[in-house]
C-alpha cells in the first residue's frame, strides 16, 4: 500500500558508468526515489509503530508546537533508504543507519530519497557497501546520515534512477 505512492520509477541511467560496467554499482553512484507521504501513510505508520505523538495526528497540536501542520514520522521518511537499496538489490541485508533530522516533513510534500555508495568491499562473494543517505524537499535536506548494507551482487536492478 505504501509503495503505490511512489511518484516516479525511472529506468537505469548510464551516467557515471563505463560502457563495460553499466548497471553495476560503483563508489560514487547515487540511487534515487521520489515519494509523497499521505494522511493514510501517517495513520498506518502510527498504528504499526504505536507512535501516537499528537504532532503526527492532530493539526492543532502541531501548530501549537510551532509547526505548519501535522508531521510525517521521521522514521517513515527514513524508510526510503532501505526501500531504495532493496529495490535495486533484492536480498540486501540492512546492517546499520545513522540519521540526522534537519527539517520537518509535512503530509503531501514531495520527498526525494537518495543513497550514494561511498565505499564497497567484497566479502565472501557478497559486498559490504557504505552509503551516504539523504532526503530532500525542494532541494533542502530534511534527513541525512549513513547506512551500511550487505549486497548479494553489485548488478543493480532497474527500480529507479542509478546515476
UniProtKB/TrEMBL annotation:
GO cellular component, one term: mitochondrion
The UniProt record lists the keyword Signal: yes
Pfam families, per the entry: MaoC_dehydratas (PF01575)
GO molecular function: (3R)-hydroxyacyl-[acyl-carrier-protein] dehydratase activity
Keywords in alphabetical order: Signal
InterPro entries hit by this protein: HotDog_dom_sf, MaoC-like_dom, UPF0336/Enoyl-CoA_hydratase
Gene Ontology BP annotations: fatty acid biosynthetic process
Domain MaoC-like residues, every copy: 33-126
Record's signal peptide: 1-22
Annotated protein name in UniProt: MaoC-like domain-containing protein
Lineage: Eukaryota, Viridiplantae, Streptophyta, Embryophyta, Tracheophyta
Amino acid at each position: 500500500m505504501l509503495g503505490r505512492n511512489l511518484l516516479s520509477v525511472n529506468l537505469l541511467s548510464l551516467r557515471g558508468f563505463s560502457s563495460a560496467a553499466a548497471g553495476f554499482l560503483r563508489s560514487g553512484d547515487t540511487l534515487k526515489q521520489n515519494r509523497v507521504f499521505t494522511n493514510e501513510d501517517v495513520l498506518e505508520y502510527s498504528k504499526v509503530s504505536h507512535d501516537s505523538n499528537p504532532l503526527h495526528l492532530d493539526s492543532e497540536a502541531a501548530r501549537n508546537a510551532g509547526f505548519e501542520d501535522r508531521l510525517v514520522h521521521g522514521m517513515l521518511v527514513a524508510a526510503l533508504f532501505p526501500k531504495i537499496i532493496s529495490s535495486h538489490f533484492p536480498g540486501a541485508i540492512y546492517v546499520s543507519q545513522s540519521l540526522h533530522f534537519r527539517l520537518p516533513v509535512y503530509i503531501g510534500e514531495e520527498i526525494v530519497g537518495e543513497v550514494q555508495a561511498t565505499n564497497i568491499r567484497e566479502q565472501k562473494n557478497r559486498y559490504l557497501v557504505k552509503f551516504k543517505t539523504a532526503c530532500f524537499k525542494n532541494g533542502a535536506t530534511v534527513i541525512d546520515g549513513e547506512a551500511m548494507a550487505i549486497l548479494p551482487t553489485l548488478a543493480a536492478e532497474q527500480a529507479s534512477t542509478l546515476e
